[in-house]
Amino acid sequence: MLENSKGNGEEFINEVATIGRIHHFNIVRLLGFCSEGTRRALLYEFMPNGSLEKFIFSKISESTHRLLSWEKLQTIAIGVARGIEYLPQGCNQRILHFDIKPHNILLDHNLCPKISDFGLAKLCSKDQSIISMTAARGTPGYTAPELFSRNFGEVSYKSDIFSYGMMLLEMVGCRKNIDLSIENQSQIYFPEWIYNKVSQGKEFALEIEADGDEEIAKKLSIVALWCIQWNPTERPSMPIVIQMLEGDIESLEMPPKPFVSSDAEMDTM
């Protein structure tokens, strides 16, 4: 159900018409809609496993074990990346989601990821690469810096790539990218803690259990750090992201530090 719907519904119908044309394995399928006065609703396919959020931020019976294996996390990361890759080019209009986060990634019965919730999405023509925005949109912690200030660069599909990078880091750490409940203040900004671990060649110790887990954790982290570069032009395109995720860890280069470093000590967690 959509609350606080405004206007005569023409914009809503146009968006439904566009989203209704999306047919991609990693994007939730729109089955129908209702527009009756100010009452509007969207009907999507049912995703029995709910959102990715509950798998990476929740613990079963206070268990310290992950609910998803590292191999499954990598598969999910690649699936979401393929969906994001499709949005700007798969339809007759370019679609920017502007709210990529674990809560909006739904999982089917096979834990296949599908991007959902296009409430903040913006539609534009195929030849429009730079987007005009009157106000920032998105969820704090995932919103690209250029949405707040053009001093960081222009708004484009690279804004969704920033959000994707923040989500990847949360998948690695099973925690919010900014967590004020963490006792050790040096661990509050998780992206910086991850960057220091990777750049110093230290092990993550993030519940690594099987052979290859450490490599997957490091790969996801490096790709994420590339995606959250503050300058949009320094973020890789989504095809490159997919290539990095599917490639060998040896082929990945360490990105520049994507934030202003704090003075906090990052050696322990």
TrEMBL record:
Q: What is the protein name stated in its UniProt record?
A: Uncharacterized protein
